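queue> holo job accepted (CU-O-CU linkage)
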Amino acid sequence: GITRHYKFNIVTRDITRLCSSKPILTVNGRFPGPTLSAREGDNVLVKVVNHVKYNVTIHWHGIRQLRTGWADGPAYIAQCPIQPGQSYVYNFTLTGQRGTLWYHAHILWLRATVHGAIVIKPKLNVPYPFPKPYKEVVVVLAEWWKADTEAVINQAMQTGGAPNVSDAHTINGHPGPLSTCASSSLDGFKLQVQKGKTYLLRIVNAALNEDLFFKIAGHKLIVVEVDAVYTKPFATDTVVITPGQTTNVLLTADKSTGRYLVTASPFMDTMVVEVDNRTATATLHYENSLTTSAITTVSIPPRNATPVATAFADSIRSLNSRSFPADVPRGAIDHSLLFTIGIGINPCATCVNGSRVVGAINNVSFVMPTTSLLEAHFFKKKGVFTLDFPGKPLVEFNYTGSGPANLQTMTGTRLYRLAYNSTVQLVLQDTGIIAPESHPIHLHGYNFFVVGKGLGNYNPKTSPLKFNLVDPIERNTIAVPSGGWAAIRFRADNPGVWFMHCHFEVHTTWGLKMAFVVDNGKGPNESLLPPPADLPKC
Ligand code: C2O
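queue> job finished
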């Protein structure tokens, strides 16, 4: 590979959406940010310069960062933030990965507008495992708030309740031609296509808090990759994508003319949050079609269309069968963990409501430290974290589908320690503390295999009998079924401190997060590298 240099200036810029203008944080003045393009094997250096009043970090979501945890980005986990006026060079190598990933700010709620796609092409002369597309198009889905997003979450934390939902969803930065303030059917993102050609769409869900359905009127989509891992191709009308996930689809322009609606609409399988029916729109436009031609519309799945999401998730299989995890016999897993995930309510003396919503894993609501966990680990600094994160729930639970269950939460900066190269099976169980809800759980530093999922309580005796050890998909963010469980496996071959959290930003803020410490191995290339000289200080 070669070395590629990027410069990301974090700058404020006034942007007008939904008939009003507000200053937002951007990468190089763009919303969404510029696409970072490279090839598998390349070394990437991104100099991030902070020109705004907030502390900033950038996370390269899904990039494995083998031994380079210093470049991973989550604030106070992997680094101290880049302070106003300062800069930091993220230096990492794209090892064994090709496909679509993305980057985003990883502090406060700044990722609302500070995000963009990462496109990793295969090594030179290595073809895709599908016919070469005529063109490739990045499609970033996100949300737009009329209010300042920091004000939105700060206000929610003061009252103890849930924050306001966004005012619109966006496709490549725009709410689209059917949004309230659109001036014409030409507004928003336009995907221009030529009859008969095939396009590769690289779809990213950068929304803060919403799973999304993505559709294109009159056209099938062939899924070929998720989270930068090739899938067995399958056709679908609807792509279902959680915050954090990426999905590549092939789109063949098999009509001859006309304009077709593109939609990104919310999927919400819980009734506890405010009803959200806002749909972002864009247009697919055949070349040589009049821009005034009528737009063919599409039927949008109801926002609680769980069967659509389940069918989509069940269709995702890895293109290749790998030796891991099938080569680890049952019973030979080093760490067999069960983590309950959910949202509860704790007393809060300082909150206006007298109580506050909390998120927890195994009854522990994670408390952010004020210095970097990775530094504390590397320099053996005492008193920053404890290594007593529980491997199973602290409080017995029996989730019956109607909640509440397993309400008690305690706080702490607790980490779970893994020996180098140990094998891990982690069952993520939604305990539906307030109400069942699907949580998109993201693990830093790893891809994991999704070996099983189901509804109700995970049963350690019977559930594993149905595991898929043949072609389970490998990914970095998994939607744990609402009122159900997902089982993942990975090998702890990347030493460092690795964050795991719900990718609904509000749930992370509430504490639905934890971190693993992975020890160094004994071999020459089995240790976390030392920190770079320009690593920011707290
Ligand atoms: Cu994309 Cu820790 O996040």
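queue> Residues 1-125 form a domain with the Immunoglobulin-like fold (CATH 2.60.40.420).
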